[in-house]
Amino acid sequence: MSIRAVLLAAVVVAQVAPAPEVKITIDRQAVTAATRDFTFPRVASPVKDDVGTRAVLRLVDGVSDPNGAPLNAIVDGLWPREEDEPGANFFFNAGTGGGRFRMDLGSAIDLAEVRTYSWHPNTRGPQVYTLYASDGADPKFNASPRDDVDPVTVGWTLMASVDTRTPSGDPGGQYAVSVKRTSGVLGRYRHLLFVCAATELDDNWGNTFYSEIDVIAAGAGDFPTWTSIR
């Protein structure tokens, strides 16, 4: 990922406001409190059969780290047993500024919520990303906009800008993010695009360990949490 793209991603995350009425909830368990159960005070634990498990994932921009899990690991209903388990998490290559990936749900459906989870004892724990969504119907729609393309100009809708970093103290731990509207559904969408930025560029180890992403359909209710681990 180019330096220009890194700066663009940082600007997008820092300055672009979320879509109206979208509520972003961030939960964190400190390193000493995090467990393999991924339980949080306000954000639900990962579930085993959300619509994301049936999605097709594509790497749009950037390079995955060869020490990590493949991209589809973030929707397989499994998550890490330990705080530093590269093979159980997807993350972008060391020394890069992040990248982009998308999820194709197969058809447009009413979405209630998107949840993202991560776990690492240091700077790879926090999450920094911008979430876009599309039903794919716009004539200008580009399913795979690279790092030099603003997704909004090619048929995507900005849903949320997420940054779970803390201003001081230990950045490590377990993080969960919920993106949903204060009422009603997020919208009727087929595609989700994640524009991910590194949490820091002081060294090569700033790309988040993404453990799981849940996509909850409207009216789906609460699924039972998945008891299996990697």
Overall description:
With 230 residues, this protein is mainly β. The chain has a single domain, classed as Jelly Rolls (Sandwich), CATH 2.60.120.260. It is built from 1 helix and 8 strands; from the N terminus they run αββββββββ. It has one helix at 3-15, and strands spanning 22-29, 56-61, 98-120, 128-134, 157-163, 173-181, 187-197, 210-217. Strands 1, 2, 3, 4, 5, 6, 7 and 8 form an 8-stranded antiparallel beta sheet that branches.
Could you write a compact summary of the structure shown?
With 230 residues, this protein is mostly beta strands. The protein has one helix and eight strands, in the order H-E-E-E-E-E-E-E-E.
Q: How many independent structural domains?
A: 1
Output the number of helix runs. Answer: 1
Q: Please bin the fraction of helical residues.
A: under 10%
Note poorly predicted spans: 3-8, 10-15, 222-230
The biggest beta sheet, please?
8 strands, antiparallel
H/E element string? Answer: HEEEEEEEE
Number of strands: 8
Oligomer: single chain
Overall average pLDDT: 90
What topology does this entry show?
Blueprint: H1 3-15, E1 22-29, E2 56-61, E3 98-120, E4 128-134, E5 157-163, E6 173-181, E7 187-197, E8 210-217
Antiparallel strand pairs: 1-6, 2-3, 3-6, 3-7, 3-8, 4-5, 4-7
Provide key terms for this protein.
mainly beta; disordered N terminus; 8 strands; about 5% helix; 1 helix; disordered C terminus; eight-stranded antiparallel β-sheet; Jelly Rolls; about 230 residues; single chain; globular
